[in-house]
Specification:
about 140 residues, mainly alpha, 5 helices, elongated
Length: about 140
């Protein structure tokens, strides 16, 4: 279960968008036309990445309930702003560390192998995300 569903989804989206950015969007398996299963490895690795990022970020009660689900809109503009800005920041960071790296994600890796290989990237994302939130740059 995710600590923060909104952040988990932002990490998945950023990973996939970054990995495919700037690439000719063709079938990685060389068949044409591509099918959804051609991108199974990418989707699996995005889940591994998001899981590691989400695990490293504690539950954030400004955007998530204690069980990690998004807090319902309580009519608070602050809640809506946090639920928008924090996932956007995480998306951008995940996009940046995976930018144009899709060809370098080997198929058949376990979650533990992937997380070990990309642990420095994951730690960087979490460090920048945390610093941006604690540095007072958000109002």
């Amino acid at each position: 279960m995710a600590n923060n569903n909104l952040l988990w989804n932002a990490a998945v989206n950023g990973f996939i968008a970054g990995a495919l950015a700037g690439a000719n969007q063709t079938d990685p398996n060389g068949t044409s036309p591509p099918t959804p299963t051609d991108f199974a490895t990418l989707a699996t690795l995005a889940g591994y990445f998001a899981g590691a990022v989400d695990t490293a970020i504690a539950n954030d009660n400004t955007i998530s309930a204690a069980n990690g689900t998004a807090s319902p809109n309580a009519g608070s503009s602050g809640l809506v702003e946090y639920q928008s800005s924090k996932p956007q920041l995480l998306y951008a960071l995940c996009f940046g560390v995976t930018f144009q790296r899709y060809p370098y994600f080997p198929a058949g890796m376990t979650g533990a192998q992937f997380q070990a290989l990309y642990s420095a990237n994951i730690a960087t994302v979490v460090a920048i995300y945390t610093q941006a939130l604690t540095a007072g740059v958000y109002t």
